[in-house]
Amino acid sequence: MASQLLLPPNPFTKSVSAKVFFTGDYQGLNDLTLKKRSNQPAKVSNGFSIRAKATSRSTHNKSFVEIPKQWYNLVADLSVKPPPPLHPKTFEPIKPEDLSHLFPNELIKQEATQERFIDIPEEVLEIYKLWRPTPLIRAKRLEKLLQTPARIYFKYEGGSPAGSHKPNTAVPQAYYNAKEGVKNVVTETGAGQWGSSLAFASSLFGLDCEVWQVANSYHQKPYRRLMMQTWGAKVHPSPSDLTEAGRRILESDPSSPGSLGIAISEAVEVAARNEDTKYCLGSVLNHVLLHQTIIGEECIQQMENFGETPDVIIGCTGGGSNFAGLSFPFIREKLKGKMNPVIRAVEPSACPSLTKGVYAYDFGDTAGLTPLMKMHTLGHDFIPDPIHAGGLRYHGMAPLISHVYEQGFMEAISIPQIECFQGAIQFARTEGIIPAPEPTHAIAATIREALRCKETGEAKVILMAMCGHGHFDLTSYDKYLRGELIDLSFGEEKIRESLSKVPHVV
């Protein structure tokens, strides 16, 4: 007979009764949080009681905080505002009505807002409670392995239903679309993190979801595709024969491995020709970065609880949403003079938009359907090598991150993939979490910094973004462990060829 346990679903929000059932012999609930900072007995229907308290890998539960009620907009605090996006045909600053066929009105407002804080809707907060707040964890075992005096903390976003930070924006995007009566959403995905997150969010709000997944990833990562399909999404390998953009690519290269730029073109084309369909993007745009700042807002509180101030903040960058989500609230504090951390973006040598790209207006997609954005770009025709083992494959960097980089508030480096996977193995064998390929770049850079501290004797506080787990990326680990993974480098000729097609905007 099933036993019944009454408990609040989240100890850091208002108490709400929820029913949890378990069958068979009772084995204890040592890791179950029942009440915030409480040892009161939990009532169980068969007459006995248990005692449980919040547990965490972090000392004294200092990493737990209230979920922030607002997103933060860095643009409000920048004395030099970022350049506006331009219409792809007129090259004039884009108007809100120019985006109405792609996005719901509220997201268009958020894209251009100058307000410092945006309230998070209650409906979104309720869903955030499924996995937020996320833990800030001190990596003591990694510190010990490296024999470093540095103190390493990582903000772990892998506990979300989709296993990464991406639902932080997928949920509000699905919410705003559903609120305005949209029936269908379309998107692209590279490694599958974003596609699975939007599929999850769409299922909660009754939206139909269609995803164009980069062909190479579609075939390499069947379980990401299955996650999307489990949540009800339709998934197509990109390039596909379902769109004009896809057909053009296949005519010129029938075996094209695809790229995010191509997949974006396909999704945008479908959204533009169907009135009941809107487009969703998982990175790059201002409103996406805005939603991700919940990471940094939580983390500032958590660092304060630990009595620490970061000296170095490190995150991986592809389109940039994970990096922005952690770093932007800290940049605000830096602008206020409250702290002065080095903020370091880490990108793959296979797709180095910040470190080898140019800062220029470029299309966000291969076909030239999207607005022109001023960003660090390798050219919208750039296609990463299909043997690149992880995500972070986008040809451009988020315009707001690019602007912040140009203003000198952060720095950037690129790291080859073998070093990244070496770091991932060290992290997994000390901290227990198998990282997604994307945050392995941040891990490798963190290890570099920690080893420098070992040489200098500096006890720096290093804060790292750990944006997701790698449970569906084990084929990449298999290649690394077999010694089949190789580092990639691009000749200057290939980059020059791609950059030659960047539009010249005066």
Key descriptive features of the protein:
single chain; 506 residues; alpha/beta; Rossmann fold; 3 domains; six-stranded mixed sheet; four-stranded parallel sheet; disordered N terminus; tryptophan synthase
> What global shape is seen?
globular
CATH architecture assignment name of the largest domain: 3-Layer(aba) Sandwich
Report the top-level CATH class of the largest domain: Alpha Beta
Please provide the count of β strands: 18
The main sheet orders its strands as: 7-8-18-13-14-17
End-to-end distance: 74 Å
Tally of domains: 3
Main sheet characteristics: 6 strands, mixed
Pfam family, one: PALP
Function: The beta subunit is responsible for the synthesis of L-tryptophan from indole and L-serine.
EC number: 4.2.1.20
Subunit structure: Tetramer of two alpha and two beta chains.
In short, what is this structure?
This protein is an alpha/beta fold and 506 residues long. Helix content is 36%, strand content 17%.
Structure report:
InterPro entries: Trp_synth_b-like, Trp_synth_beta, Trp_synth_beta/beta-like, TrpB-like_PALP, TrpB-like_PALP_sf. Its cofactor is pyridoxal 5'-phosphate. The protein is an alpha/beta fold and 506 residues long. The protein folds into 3 domains: 1-55, no CATH class; 89-121 and 164-286, Rossmann fold; 135-162 and 291-499, Rossmann fold, CATH 3.40.50. The protein is built from 18 helices and 18 strands. The relative contact order is 0.13.
